[in-house]
Amino acid sequence: MKKLISGIQPTGRLHLGNYLGAIKNWVDLQDKYDCSFFIADLHSLTIKISPEELAKQSREIAIDLLALGVDPKKSLLFKQSEVTGHTELAWIFNCLVPISELERMTQFKDKSLRQPDNVNAGLLTYPALQAADILLYQAEYVPVGEDQIQHLELSRIIAKKFNNRYKNFFPEVRPVLSPAPRLMSLSDPKKKMSKSLGEASYIAIRDDANTVAKKIKKAVTDKQGVNNLLSLYSYFGDKDKLQTMQADYQAGKLLNVDLKEELTKIILEFLNPVQKRVQELEKNPSKVDKILADGAKKAQKTATKNIEDIKKIIGLK
Ligand code: TYM
Q1: Number of H helices, E strands in the chain
Q2: pLDDT at residue 123, as a whole number
Q3: Is the pLDDT of residue 196 over 90?
Q4: Are 216 and 185 in contact (CB under 8 A)?
Q5: Ramachandran quadrant class, 24 (left: phi over 0; alpha: psi -120 to 50; beta: rest)
Q6: Strands 141-143 and 174-176, how do they pair?
Q7: Residues marked as catalytic
Q8: Does 148 sit in the ligand 1 pocket, CB within 6 Å?
Q9: pLDDT at position 145, please?
Q10: ∠ CA(289), CA(294), CA(297), 5° rounding?
Q11: What are 76's strand-pairing partners?
């Protein structure tokens, strides 16, 4: 089976953009690929995050992923920081990647503007660590949302540079996009749904019924906003109903309150069983710890072997 890998940062809460853009594909592709998924906790150090928050959110994200259907019988799930090799390979890649390529990254530019008092070196070299996350396991397929495409292109460039300079060792990195590669914000539909835009922008997997209803009620309903709500409906809802609503919208007959009510209903139908599983897992912390530890142990085996090979290739051994 071909290797597939992806990660998510434990900053803030897992939301529908993460789910529809990436996690749903993680879950759906588990039978087709040799899958590894990780909590990108080292990446989260590029923002100011308290030790308590980092630990708490890493655990919550792990639980959310399991509740959404990441299956430890089929896939590895682990914390990035628990496997040595990611940072070692990142250093090697740092010595291959031109600074100019890193400075081109939109996320680097955006985040530098968002946190002007904390433009740390990690923010710049972030994509070298991301390339290492993937290539450490010689993984080829990477299910992500559209905002990560630029980083994956850089991973390809880095792999090529290594292969050309030393030896053909790394495969070509291929992004896997979902039908919802860029879910837009509820409060500002010109921007993507994101934790950094604030609570009103996203629906979190753990939002209760009241919060979901309130957020959808407040969602912006200009042309882009309604289109966003309709597409959100299309990912969860009934196809016939969607067609009727789309036709009504074209004819100027669709009432925003009706659309919002339908949308709230189907999103809650999706979230209810997920949240039940979250509650179950919250009651069983040792089970979650064991899944993460087993995942890290297995990932470490591959990582250790590949780091040894890489060291030989570049003359460190
Ligand atoms: P992160 O934690 O920001 O997001 C996790 C995944 O969710 C996707 N996503 C979205 N997709 C569609 N619409 C949206 N509004 C939306 N918002 C987020 C992201 O594209 C991502 O797939 N750098 C990565 C984590 C990472 C990684 C990796 C991913 C670290 N190393 C190696 C793949 C491979 C990040 O910050 O994702």
Answers
A1: 13, 5
A2: 97
A3: no
A4: no
A5: alpha
A6: parallel
A7: 111, 192, 195
A8: yes
A9: 98
A10: 125
A11: 36
Residues 6+ apart with CB under 8 A from 25: 143, 176, 178
Q: Where are the alpha helices (DSSP H) in 22-98?
A: 24-28, 51-68, 86-94
Q: What is the pTM assigned to this prediction?
A: 0.97
- Contact between 46 and 122 (Cβ < 8 Å): yes
What one-letter code names the amino acid at 176? V
Residue 120: pLDDT above 90? yes
Q: What are phi and psi of 144, to 5 degrees?
A: -145, 170
Ligand 1 touching residue 173 (CB < 6 A): no
Integer Cα distance of 125 and 93 in angstroms: 9
Residue 280: predicted pLDDT: 98
Residue with structure tokens 């004819």?
Answer: 251
Report phi then psi at 5, rounded to 5: -145, 150
As a whole number, mean pLDDT of residues 84-99 equals: 98
Residue 99's pLDDT is 97
> Is 183 near ligand 1, meaning CB less than 6 Å away?
yes
Question: Domains of the chain (ranges plus CATH)?
Answer: 3-181+285-314 (3.40.50.620), 195-280 (1.10.240.10)
Which residue puts its alpha carbon closest to atom 24 of ligand 1?
8
Could you count the other beta carbons within 10 Å of the beta carbon of residue 68? 18
- CA 147 – CA 191 distance, rounded (Å): 11
Q: Which atom of ligand 1 is nearest to the CA of 130?
A: 31
- For ligand 1, whether the C-beta of 147 sits within 6 Å is yes
What is the Cα–Cα distance from 303 to 93, expressed in whole angstroms? 15
pLDDT band at 204 (very low <50, low <70, confident <90, very high): very high
Is the pLDDT confidence value at 238 over 90? no
